[in-house]
Amino acid sequence: MLRRALAVLISILVCTSAHGATVSFNDPGQNKQWYLDALNFGEAWAQIVDLPMRGKIHVAVVDSGFDVGHTDLQRNLAIGKGINIVNGGSNLNPVNPHGTGTIGLLAATSGNGKGITQAAWTAKAIPVRVSNRLDGAASTFDLANGIRYAADKGARIINVSYSGVHLGALQRAARYAQTKGAVVFMAAGNDGLNHRRWRNHKQLVAVGSTNANGSVSSFSSRGSFVDLVAPGSNILSLTTNDRTRTWSGTSFASPIAASVASLMLTANPTLSPWQVRKLLAITARDIGPAGRDDTSGFGLIDAAAAVAAAIATEGKYTGSIAGRNISIVPNNLASSSGLRLVNQLQAIPESVDQTAIPEPGTVAMLLCGGFAVTGRPARRRETAA
Question: Active site includes 251?
Answer without folding.
Answer: yes
